[in-house]
Amino acid sequence: MKEQLSRLKPYQPGKQVDEVRREYGLDRIEKLASNENPFGSSPGAKQAIEKGLTELMIYPDGHAADLRGKVSRFLNVRPDCLIFGNGSDEILHMVSRAFIEPGTNSIMADPTFSQYKRNVIIEGGEAREVPLDSEGNHDLERMLSLIDDRTRVIWICNPNNPTGRSIDRETFISFMERVPKNIVVVSDEAYSEYVTSENYPNTIDFIDRFPNLIATHTFSKIYGLAGLRIGYGVAHSVLISELEHVRDPFNVSRLSQAAAAAALDDQNFVRECAERNAEGKKQYYDFCKETGIHYFPTDTNFILMEIGDSGEDVFQYMVRNGYIIRSGSALGCPEYVRITIGTKEQNAAIIKLLKDYVSCKQPS
């Protein structure tokens, strides 16, 4: 085993429904821990899967030609500016695999999506972490100050997981203008479809201006295809060709490609999910303002809140009551909990439980 792997802990996903049901003896469990879409998937995606069941014996198209064409037209980019992966996680892995090696370093926020650091360490690189500012934003100036001649990749999670905060267009452009062109910048935009700000950067517009930039997207969140694992990266064709060297053949299944293509066609479903998410976000904002609970305004389908002194205590309380949320102890912010914004009814039920928890914790 590589020496550096001894410093890693396996990735900790949120608890699964069956696991909690067995452990706590509960009949009814609601899972709002992994930022999955509570409104399901597009009917068109389900139909595409059913249609594809007759061809399971055939290898998938390694070039993802049909899906590539649809995404190319949807984004108005050249087909050779796209790369597809087994979830956007695989694209992130490709970047580290292609550019990180022993003696190099990579810069990222803290806390942020944990896979950046894991991938860098696996490849033998140094992970340089920069604390977020007090409002949960990337400290881009500090990140720039850590660049040296061994820096290979900078990771930007926009919006950031777990704080839900996003970087605006002007700030992002200013940052990119100061990053040396030999350093790859990854803009992880898994939650971009939930952003409502008109000043959010459409990084796809910048790939010719900044050929060292790659934006990653997923079908796991608003498109509701987390169980199929499919995502893509958008970058200058030269950068894409470099990543193709480390992409495994047939890495995206036939069913995943078909479902993603159909899901992309159903933008009415996407808009409806975004609207319902905004309504659910307001439920949590109102609750936090009413109770004085600290939270980070979010541009995603989750919210990070500080309830009491221990996020783990809140997590255990919620699980005992049939709701799986995410303890901040697994996210680098142990005082907090992260809750996926659910249906109106799910949100109301969780808020009621949180109100009960807060009232019990208040001194009499």
Automatic annotation (TrEMBL):
List the SUPFAM superfamilies hit by this protein, alphabetically: PLP-dependent transferases (SSF53383)
Q: List modified residues, type N6-(pyridoxal phosphate)lysine.
A: 221
According to its UniProt record, which protein family does this protein belong to? Belongs to the class-II pyridoxal-phosphate-dependent aminotransferase family. Histidinol-phosphate aminotransferase subfamily.
> GO biological process annotations for this chain's record?
L-histidine biosynthetic process
Pfam annotation, one family: Aminotran_1_2
Q: Which residues form the Aminotransferase class I/classII large domain?
A: 30-351
Matching PANTHER family, A to Z? HISTIDINOL-PHOSPHATE AMINOTRANSFERASE, HISTIDINOL-PHOSPHATE AMINOTRANSFERASE 2
Q: Recall the GO molecular function terms of this protein's record.
A: histidinol-phosphate transaminase activity; pyridoxal phosphate binding
Per the record's keyword annotation, is Ribonucleoprotein included, yes or no? no
Catalytic reaction equation(s): L-histidinol phosphate + 2-oxoglutarate = 3-(imidazol-4-yl)-2-oxopropyl phosphate + L-glutamate
Q: Is the keyword Amino-acid biosynthesis in the record?
A: yes
The EC code for this enzyme is 2.6.1.9
Pathway of this protein? Amino-acid biosynthesis; L-histidine biosynthesis; L-histidine from 5-phospho-alpha-D-ribose 1-diphosphate: step 7/9
Q: Which cofactor does it need?
A: pyridoxal 5'-phosphate
Name it.
Histidinol-phosphate aminotransferase
The record's listing under CDD domains reads:
AAT_like (cd00609)
This chain is encoded by the gene named: hisC
Supply the alphabetized keyword list.
Answer: Amino-acid biosynthesis, Aminotransferase, Histidine biosynthesis, Pyridoxal phosphate, Transferase
Assembly information from the UniProt record: Homodimer.
